[in-house]
Each structure stands twice: as structure tokens, then as C-alpha cells.
Amino acid sequence: MKKLLKYVIVDIVQNKIVLIYTALLLVISLSVFNLENNSAKGLLSLLNIILIIVPLICIIFSTIYIYNSSEFIELLVSQPLKRRTIWLSLFSGLSLSLCLAFFIGAGIPILLYNADATGFMMIAMGLFLTVVFVSIAMLAAGLTRDKAKGIGLSILLWLYFSLIFDALVLFFLFQFEDYPLEKVMIVFSFLNPIDLGRIQILLQMDISALMGYTGAVFREFFGNSTGIILSFLGLIVWIIFPLMISLKKFKGKDL
Q: Residue 57 belongs to what H/E stretch?
């Protein structure tokens, strides 16, 4: 597994798309912090970029990489290697490489300009979202053998988590605005990994006051150590659940 993992990491790190992604994040991060006089404002601007760009690049690149490696995967399956080892090595290689790209592109500038609890939380959330969307990409690639359908499904999933989910929640709130739904919103937040990351960082930046009573409920739940632990556990579930489903599909797939 170590040799396979090393090969995947080296292959991805040398990929032009990953290098461009790293450089793009680095340029954006440095530009945002240099344009803003207040590092907190720069961090808030960078937050919106990270919550959109990082999941998009991770899910699309990972899906395309799996499909482009289909012949290599078939060769590995013909060797005395367990399918579980092959699939987890691909997942680990993609996750570690993209996490490294994120840390170089966004993590280092954050540490340089805002090395406090909020900065560390943003780096942690960025790394977690990277791994989460690699896992979701593995699921999308495992559900269908057609490359076009797989990439289309990945884009649809990104759209759902980034835009459609929030629209559905707002529609739900408007329909049941006469009922106390603040605690229900906590449950909804666990259904979207991007929302979990956004809420934690906003609470760290003490902007929850702008969210009204809902923000107060979020702060009461997520602001303490138990809430923080539960939010990270929620992200871990978002990593494991899609990965296990994709692994099950891969084990039963006729290559």
C-alpha cells in the first residue's frame, strides 16, 4: 500500500492542474490579505472563496483523476492486491496531495497574516472540506462507469451543497416561519459539510450576532467544546460514509 500511495501522491503533485490550483489559491490569499487593512476582513473575504473554490476543485479533479486512472486501476486489480487497498490508496493519495496544495496555497498565508484561533479553524475546515469532497468524488466515480455522467454527478453534488441546499432551507423556513425552527436548523447544518465549516468560522470570528436569534442558538450549541467536537465528528462522518459506499461499489464492480 505504501508504494501505491507514494506513486499516487507523486503523480498528483506533479499534475499541472494541482500546481495551478495551488498557485491560484496562493495568489488569491496573498491578494486578499494585502488589499484589506484589517486581517479579519481579509479572512472573511477568503472564507467565501475557500467555501466555493476548494470543494469545486477537489470534487471535479478527484472524479476526473479516478476515470483517467481506470486502466491503471484495472492493472492493479489483476495483481495480488485487495480492492480495498487499491481504493483506499487512491483516496489517501488524492486527499494528502490536495490537502498539501490547500495548505501551501491558503494555509501558509493565513498563518502569516492571521495566526490565531480563527485562522487555525479556517485551515482545519479547509483541510476537512478537501477530504470530504474527495470522498464524495470517489462516490460519484464509483456509482457510474460513464465518465460524462460521473463528472456531471460531481458538479451536481457541488451545486447542491454550495447553492441548492441553502435555497431549500430558506424555502423551508419561509413555509414554516410561524414555528420555532432554530434547533431544527442545527440538525440541518449537519446535513451539509460546507455549512458546518461556515458556521464554525463565523462563530470564531464572533459574527454570530449578525445572524439574530438563530446565531445565538448556534453559538450556544457550537460555541462550546462539545459543539465543536460534534461538528468535527459530523465532518468525519461525511468523509467515512461516502467512502465506504464507494468502496462497497468498487468491490462489487465488474471491471
A: helix 39-68
Helix (H) or strand (E) holding 71: helix 70-77
Q: Residue 21: inside a domain, yes or no? A: yes
Residue 88 lies in a domain: yes
Domain-embedded: residue 233: no
Cβ-contact 140, 97 below 8 angstroms: no
Measured from the Cβ of residue 139, the count of other Cβ atoms closer than 10 Å reads 22
The CA-atom distances, in angstroms, between 31 and each of 37, 111, 115 are 12, 15, 17
Query: Do 94 and 134 touch, CB atoms closer than 8 A?
Result: yes
As given in the structure block, the three cell numbers for residue 86 are 487499491
| Residue 215 confidence class, pLDDT cut points 50, 70, 90 | low
pLDDT digits (tens, 9 = 90+) for 49-69: 888 899 999 999 999 999 998
Q: What is the domain extent for residue 44? A: 2-164+239-252
pLDDT tens, 31-52?
Answer: 888 887 777 777 888 888 888 8
**Number of domains forming the structure of the chain:** 1
190 close to 196: Cβ distance less than 8 angstroms: yes
Phi, psi for 178 (deg, rounded to 5): -80, -5
Which is nearest to 54 in space by CA: 131, 130, 156? 130
pLDDT of residue 1: 67
Q: Are 245 and 253 in contact (CB under 8 A)?
A: no
Do the domain assignments include residue 248? yes
Q: CA angle, 63 as apex, 62 and 66 as ends, to 5°? A: 85
Query: What DSSP character marks residue 247?
Result: H
* Tens-digit pLDDT profile for residues 111-143: 988 888 888 888 999 999 999 999 999 999 988
